[in-house]
């Protein structure tokens, strides 16, 4: 059990990660170029919004006007005067008011009957899925309609967006507002309410251009949702011009390829040069690290925290006891402080921590924390955490930990890269520089004022360090640009190749009284991408900027150049309730995030109770594979299933996608459905992942991870499940399947089902490859059989007169399905021994790198 003091400190800082504001000068909109895309055309556009407010697409009503008026909300029929036309199955909703407002609620009407999936904010930084409901601050809503007489269902979506005045009339008003939706239950239906607001009472408008996008399509299963979302986001990018979809950007391969190691869960902010070198050394005994992320703790701050008293890492670990030596009971004053903290902490835990956002306990604590308890809380944050510290100016690596700029440069270039062979190094920073901002010339001390809806999502925002103590940041575009430019220039000189830009969704609170949150975000993201393009650009046009803690719409719909983003909240190695939910959140969040950026499923630890399912999910995610092991705390078997000895990872060639049969199912609660994902390995192969994640979930009412029943699941897979991974799927093709660990090989038609059981928290990884035939012999190269995504080792496959040529990556045990044993097998021209049993040809690729394998049946 945690001590009351720990509960106080944890809860009072559960929201700790924001650069936030109240600037003294107005924030100006960033000017972003419009994306170059072909416009979406429809030969016969039709008005989608009817006079009564119904939204009709393809003959189906996707938003039905409610009979009663919702108090405090304007009906869609009264404000949607633009009467937008439907094009390619979708339409924008634009609102026009009689009087200019900074905040308005619009009653969009009733969602259709059917299964509902929402993606909504659960913290200021992050989103999570919600099944069967539309929570406050939802950023995407999907509906699977009821089946009709032809066996078809209507699949519809609502995406709240950035909005503003018509750009043709007022350029400066474009995207000054953000929209989010929430649902209210009414007679077994859900009424959808859109909240459009600027975050600044002084920023008002009458017209809100493109506040939301609605789309629909008909299909036999939910696999169509991926294309529906992709087409919708392309249309939104074309209209808005504030971002580009992932399909129009290049993810930074240096931040994706190869085994990565992040210092965060290994050291937290106590990282230093010696610790990093020790971690690289012990990992190299198993597999070389190709990517290094130096997380929080590398930079010089305006003042240091006494490491003996620093609780920053423990607070973010979420479950360790407070350091008992903080207070010395022999000191009368210190003893009194302990007793005071325990009393207050006990009250917090009982009446505030898990209480409803509008409860008396929360309201009383808010009053106390911002009045009589404000001083003690700010003092504690100053003395015992990093969260009120600011980046020192000019930017510089920490002098005692890394020897300043000269020492850090030598360490990165000579030790990390030359000695240990690391290809890519990225360094962490918060959006405002550090948690408490940046001590740059002209910086002001700012305080946050989040929106009312966000305060309901995360009440602790009102008493976190940034709100109580404030942060330092410039407020003018030149000042913000200068911070990013000088920070990135310093890192570039040190040999660093990119950045992990964290705490981004806190910027939305910067705009109160000074232009609004969306404008503030535009300034910071614009400065970040401008500096990233200048200092961390690659020849393919990508920039090595990884976005993190960034799930608000005003962030996601601003990523014009950056093309990688975290898929979910952190992997918390010491919080068991979060382990399975992390997989669920990554999978479902990627529906939305994956349209704008390559989803990064976060780091995990290889020596950990949940290591195997997390390793499998990372290997098949299509994104980076990153561990955060402490030095010497490694599981060699897990790491060798993820990476080759030289650190090469076998990544899928596209992001993992939810399979049709689980997309609208509550895989965390229904007791019968496995989480199932598919990712492509080229045009003719895929990797399927099945995970028993039942039990793990997020309690929105109590704002915490929780765990319920996790029983054995009976489930199945078939090749058609992988159709979501391809642009086109041949229903007549036959496939070879190989199950990791079991060595089971099968030949399957598109709908031939394989039944299996998954133990609690269990998983299964299946390699699929389409069968080919050489001179009448069916075959399919399957890849490295002992790797989690072994199919990624098949680089190409061609047929010649002398046999089948497979370009493969080694080393390792390589497998090929074949109808019968080959007569000969060669590797790089030299004949090798190959075993054959139950349709599986196995051979040893002894050498690393690309190898040519030739199999002949003559």
From TrEMBL:
<dbReference type="InterPro" id="IPR013785">
    <property type="entry name" value="Aldolase_TIM"/>
</dbReference>
<keyword id="KW-0119">Carbohydrate metabolism</keyword>
<dbReference type="InterPro" id="IPR017853">
    <property type="entry name" value="GH"/>
</dbReference>
<comment type="similarity">
    <text>Belongs to the glycosyl hydrolases 36 family.</text>
</comment>
<keyword id="KW-0732">Signal</keyword>
<protein>
    <recommendedName>
        <fullName>galactinol--sucrose galactosyltransferase</fullName>
        <ecNumber>2.4.1.82</ecNumber>
    </recommendedName>
</protein>
<feature type="signal peptide">
    <location>
        <begin position="1"/>
        <end position="15"/>
    </location>
</feature>
<dbReference type="GO" id="GO:0047274">
    <property type="term" value="F:galactinol-sucrose galactosyltransferase activity"/>
</dbReference>
<dbReference type="Pfam" id="PF05691">
    <property type="entry name" value="Raffinose_syn"/>
</dbReference>
<dbReference type="InterPro" id="IPR008811">
    <property type="entry name" value="Glycosyl_hydrolases_36"/>
</dbReference>
């Amino acid at each position: 059990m945690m001590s009351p003091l720990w509960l106080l400190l944890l809860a009072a800082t559960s929201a700790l990660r924001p650069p936030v504001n109240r600037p003294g000068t107005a924030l100006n909109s960033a000017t972003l170029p419009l994306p170059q895309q072909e416009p979406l055309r429809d030969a016969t556009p039709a008005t989608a919004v009817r006079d009564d407010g119904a939204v009709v697409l393809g003959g189906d009503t996707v938003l039905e006007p409610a009979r009663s008026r919702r108090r405090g909300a304007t009906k869609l029929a009264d404000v949607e005067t633009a009467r937008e036309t439907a094009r390619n199955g979708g339409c924008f909703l634009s609102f026009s008011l009689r009087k200019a407002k900074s905040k308005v609620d619009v009653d969009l009407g009733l969602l259709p009957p059917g299964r509902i999936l929402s993606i909504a904010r659960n913290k200021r930084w992050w989103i999570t899925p919600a099944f069967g409901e539309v929570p406050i601050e939802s950023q995407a809503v999907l509906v699977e309609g009821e089946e009709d007489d032809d066996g078809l269902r209507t699949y519809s979506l609502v995406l709240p967006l950035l909005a503003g005045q018509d750009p043709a009339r007022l350029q400066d008003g474009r995207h000054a507002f953000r929209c989010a939706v929430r649902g209210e239950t009414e007679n077994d239906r859900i009424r959808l309410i859109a909240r459009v607001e600027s975050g600044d009472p002084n920023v008002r408008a009458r017209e809100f251009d493109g506040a939301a996008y609605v789309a629909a399509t008909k299909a036999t299963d939910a696999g169509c949702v991926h294309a529906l979302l992709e087409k919708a986001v392309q249309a939104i990018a074309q209209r808005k011009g504030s971002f580009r979809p992932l399909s129009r950007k290049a993810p930074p391969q240096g931040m994706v390829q190869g085994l990565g190691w992040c210092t965060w869960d290994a050291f937290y902010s106590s990282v230093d040069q010696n610790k990093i070198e020790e971690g690289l050394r012990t990992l190299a005994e198993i597999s070389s690290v190709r990517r290094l992320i130096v997380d929080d703790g590398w930079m010089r701050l305006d003042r240091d925290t006494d490491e003996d008293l620093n609780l920053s890492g423990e607070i973010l670990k979420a479950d360790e006891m407070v350091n008992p030596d903080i207070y010395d009971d022999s000191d009368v004053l210190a003893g009194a402080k302990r007793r005071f903290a325990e009393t207050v902490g006990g009250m917090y835990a009982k009446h505030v921590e898990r209480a409803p956002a509008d409860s008396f306990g929360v309201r009383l604590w808010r009053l106390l924390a911002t009045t009589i308890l404000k001083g003690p809380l700010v003092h504690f944050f100053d003395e015992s955490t990093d969260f009120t510290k600011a980046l020192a100016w000019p930017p510089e690596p920490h002098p005692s930990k890394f020897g300043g700029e000269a020492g850090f440069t030598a360490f990165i270039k000579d030790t990390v890269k030359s000695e240990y062979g690391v290809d890519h190094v990225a360094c962490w920073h918060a959006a405002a520089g550090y948690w408490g901002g940046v001590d740059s010339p002209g910086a002001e001390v700012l305080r946050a004022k989040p929106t009312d809806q966000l305060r309901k999502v995360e009440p602790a925002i009102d008493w976190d360090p940034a709100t109580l103590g404030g942060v330092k940041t410039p407020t003018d575009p030149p000042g913000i640009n200068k911070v990013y430019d000088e920070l990135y220039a310093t890192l570039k000189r040190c040999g660093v190749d990119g950045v992990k830009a964290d705490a981004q969704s806190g910027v939305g609170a910067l705009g109160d009284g000074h232009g609004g949150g969306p404008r503030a975000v535009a300034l910071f993201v614009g400065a970040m991408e401008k500096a990233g393009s200048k200092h961390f650009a690659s020849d393919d046009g990508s920039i090595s900027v990884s976005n993190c803690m960034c799930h608000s719409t005003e962030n996601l719909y601003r990523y014009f150049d950056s093309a990688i983003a975290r898929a979910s909240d952190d992997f918390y190695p010491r919080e068991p309730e979060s382990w399975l939910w992390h997989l669920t959140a990554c999978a479902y969040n990627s529906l939305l995030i994956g349209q704008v950026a390559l989803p990064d499923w976060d780091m995990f630890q290889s020596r950990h109770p949940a290591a195997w399912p997390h390793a499998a999910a990372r290997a098949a995610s299509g994104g980076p594979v990153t561990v955060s092991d402490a030095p010497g705390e490694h599981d060699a078997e897990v790491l060798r299933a993820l990476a080759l000895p030289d650190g090469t990872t076998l990544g899928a060639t596209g992001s993992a996608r939810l399979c049709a049969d689980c997309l609208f199912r509550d895989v965390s609660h229904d007791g019968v459905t496995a989480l199932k994902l598919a990712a492509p390995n080229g045009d003719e192969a895929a990797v399927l992942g099945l995970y028993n994640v039942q039990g793990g979930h997020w309690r929105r009412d109590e704002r915490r991870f929780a765990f319920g029943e996790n029983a054995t699941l009976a489930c199945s897979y078939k090749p058609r499940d992988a159709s979501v991974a391809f642009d086109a799927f041949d229903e007549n093709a036959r496939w070879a399947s190989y199950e990791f660990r079991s060595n089971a090989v099968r030949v399957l038609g598109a709908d031939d089902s394989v039944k299996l059981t998954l133990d609690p928290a269990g998983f299964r990884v299946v390699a699929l490859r389409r069968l080919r035939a050489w001179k009448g012999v069916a075959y399919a190269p399957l890849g490295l059989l002992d790797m989690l995504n072994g199919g990624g080792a098949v680089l190409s496959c061609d047929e010649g007169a002398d046999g089948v040529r497979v370009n493969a990556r080694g080393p390792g045990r390589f497998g090929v399905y074949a109808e019968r044993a080959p007569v000969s097998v060669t590797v790089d021209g030299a004949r090798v021994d190959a075993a054959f049993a139950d349709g599986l040809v196995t051979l040893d690729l002894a050498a690393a790198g690309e190898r040519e394998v030739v199999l002949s049946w003559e």
